[in-house]
Amino acid sequence: DMGGHDTYMHKEIHEQADAVDRVLRGRIDDRFSTVHLGGLNLDAREARRIRRVKILGCGTSYHAGMIGAQMIEELARIPADAEPASEFRYRNAVVDPDTLYIAVSQSGETYDVLAAVQELKRKGARVLGVVNVVGSAIAREADGGIYVHAGPEVCVVSTKCFTNTTVAFALLALHLGRTRDLSVRDGKRIIEGLRKLPAQISEILKQEELVRELAEEYAESRSMLFIGRVRGYPVAREASLKLKEITYIHAEAYPASELKHGPLALIEPALPTVAIVPDDDLLEKNRAALEEIKARSGKILAVAHQEQEKADRTIVVPKNEDELDPILMGIPLQLLAYHAAKVLGRDIDKPRNLAKSVTVE
Ligand code: F6R
Hints:
Elements lengths: L7 H7 L1 H9 L3 E2 L4 E2 L8 H6 L2 E6 L1 H18 L3 E5 H4 L10 E7 L5 H12 L3 E6 L5 H5 L2 E4 L12 H20 L4 H22 L2 H11 L4 E6 L3 H16 L2 E6 L17 E5 L5 H13 L4 E5 L8 E4 L8 H5 L1 H13 L18
Parallel strand pairs: 3-4, 3-5, 5-6, 6-7, 8-9, 8-10, 10-11, 11-12
Antiparallel strand pairs: 1-2
């Protein structure tokens, strides 16, 4: 039942405020400015012994993991990174007892992720799952974890589950942070930010008409470049993936900081750039990147917290705490991909060549 929407994708994009409300529900502990994650199976002493965090997932879940790694590093000050599970399992990686491994999966059935989990467990590692489907193979195989409570996701491409997974990681980062050295004050600040998310998502979705108009213009592109720096980079990657999956327009994501090391050569009026420009300590650096693109007659669409002078168009999104901004900044670009696919007459819920869960090697 699509409840009046023309596709599951559209329905699921619009379910995100409620979905985020669900992942937060019952987990916030105001007394200690932290969160409770019942299924983690990780006591405080164990949490303090973690020396590294390694996050494994595929596709969109990998991108959510990239955002999660940054949050864990920022809030808990534990070195963290994300890697495609599909790569990890084939490279005979060093498995380290002081590393916390986290497998991320919407379906909980993705074979590359499951195989990575099994290999890790065989070698004695502790593995947590950040999973949507309750009781799925990865959830069962993991030592504990967090359910992201996005609800059923029917469209082949992931939207609400991506958003909820990034929120689940914010909860984990806050929990690990408050078990270690994150101050009460920062804990409170993050909790306040988390509570604002559902209303801010609704606010973003109200701009759908503007985004639809932009999509009409961008649907004609042969290729698009997505850029972002640090917190903005995984957002750019995910937006680029969503666009290519459902429109079949070629799209590439690059760290904005890497532009001058190669991709600037591509800039010309026919290659539009979508830039993620959060209002954080890297704003000036990002503005400089927009200037570089503009100087080469590149067309720019910015997703930012304030109108960007160098951009042709800006989608303004509400500001949250710096660490939580990536949760929100990609949401208008889900709509951009959706409306561009619609203009092109694509089969949005079932893009060619793709399956909802990849249970084979
Ligand atoms: C993209 C998409 C895929 C999945 C990937 C992992 O929109 O849906 O990239 O994210 O196949 O799937 P899960 O999260 O079920 O492990």
